[in-house]
Design goal:
By secondary structure, the protein is of the alpha/beta class. The protein is built from 12 helices and 15 strands. The chain is about 35% helix and about 15% strand. The strands form 4 sheets. It has a 7-stranded mixed beta sheet with strand order 1-9-8-5-4-2-3, sandwiched between helices. The two termini are about 20 Å apart. This is DegT/DnrJ/EryC1/StrS family aminotransferase.
Length: about 375
């Protein structure tokens, strides 16, 4: 039995008639760019996430770039983020002309360690970008407190954590709604994934939202009247139509992911010392966009599972401070030891809502056979 890392076709088959009807509706309408589906999706995602405004863009990467631009962050500025994330987080900082400043991660959560942030803040620091990695919220309460003390903006990278929740003492908030801006990705493998690329920016500030709407259409305030040098970053109407269908199902899919994760936890519990299952922070609700374990002899385990027909992925094999493109920052191996250690140990196992119990049992059995 083959067990893929993800199976997008199975999700499509489960809602095929709804998706097809939505897509056909767009095609027959003749309105393909920034039409009613984009506007409705923006309203629906804003309500779901508990924010006033949502602006659809072409990708999660663009969401980060436009968010930074909307805050006026650029050359000579510094932005603090994690070195243990997908490249786009730091890439967006670089693309607007700013400097990414890395802060090491927490051992258990894989997210940026707030205890280490203040030591990296200088006059040039303008923002913090915490990443909610694998679907687990970062420690937002202390991050927001630090940002408040130093008058910094917070841009949440919630690309992997749509629907995740953070528990404050008096309230519970969806990720993406906590910082000044929140960035979403609708890449097909995400909790809420489209049929191609797509992204969205969340904010409670109407002025920022208006700037974002201008930036996404080449900086035009009106047709052919440009007040900014912007981007071509519009969320496609076809993608919005598909995402509106999927948004109705996302909560049940997240719950299914959590159930799969619990089964993995149970089946792998006997491998303590060899495998560490994902730690779930007590102040938040993990959505398991990825089910990521630590494993001894990670690379050998991955090769073994591949031979057995089991899909895996390493998110991420090289900490960003060691990437060739950031050699000019002067970082070296050993500067961020927690991130570097994680890069050598993490492996993500098959995870998607339609994953069957017998498939999870097979994966766990083969991991036990390896050890």
């Amino acid at each position: 039995m083959q067990v893929p890392l993800v199976d997008l076709k199975s999700q499509y088959e489960s809602i095929k008639s709804e998706i097809n009807e939505a897509i056909e509706g767009v095609l027959s309408s003749g309105s393909y760019i920034l039409g009613s589906n984009v506007r409705h999706l923006e309203d629906e995602v804003a309500r779901y996430c508990g924010v006033k405004c949502a602006v659809g863009v072409a990708s999660g990467t663009d969401a980060l770039m436009l968010a930074l631009n909307a805050l006026g962050i650029g050359r000579k500025d510094e932005v603090i983020t994690t070195p243990f994330t997908f490249f786009a987080t730091a890439e967006a900082i670089t693309q607007v002309g700013a400097k990414p400043v890395f802060v090491d991660i927490e051992e258990e959560s894989f997210n940026i360690d707030p205890v280490k942030i203040e030591g990296k803040i200088i006059e040039k620091t303008k923002a913090i970008i915490p990443v909610h990695l694998y679907g687990q919220p970062a420690s937002m309460k202390p991050i927001m407190e630090i940002a408040g003390r130093h008058s910094l903006s917070v841009i949440e990278d919630a690309a992997q954590a749509f629907g995740a929740e953070y528990n404050f003492s008096q309230s519970t908030k969806k990720v993406g709604s906590i910082g000044e801006l929140g960035c979403l990705s609708f890449y097909p493998t995400k909790n809420l994934g489209g049929c191609g690329d797509g992204g969205m920016i969340l904010t409670n500030h109407e002025k920022i939202a208006e700037r974002l709407r201008i930036l996404r259409v080449h900086g035009a305030r009106a047709l052919y009247l440009h007040c900014l040098a912007g981007y071509n970053s519009r969320l496609d109407e076809l993608q919005a139509a598909a995402l509106r269908v999927k948004l109705k199902h996302v909560d049940s899919w997240i719950e299914m992911r959590r159930e799969k994760a619990s089964l993995y936890d149970e089946l792998l519990s006997s491998l303590k010392g060899l495998v560490s299952v994902p730690y779930q922070v007590p102040y938040a609700r993990h959505t398991f966009c990825a089910y990521t374990i630590r494993a001894r002899e990670r690379d050998k385990l991955r090769d073994y599972l591949t031979r057995k027909g089991i899909g895996t992925r390493v998110y991420y094999p090289l900490s960003l401070h060691l990437q060739e493109v950031y050699a000019h920052l002067g970082c070296k191996r050993g500067d961020f030891p927690v991130s570097e250690k994680a890069s050598g140990e993490v492996i993500s196992l098959p995870m998607y809502p339609e994953l069957k119990e017998e498939q999870i049992e097979l994966v766990a059995r083969e991991i036990k056979n390896f050890f």
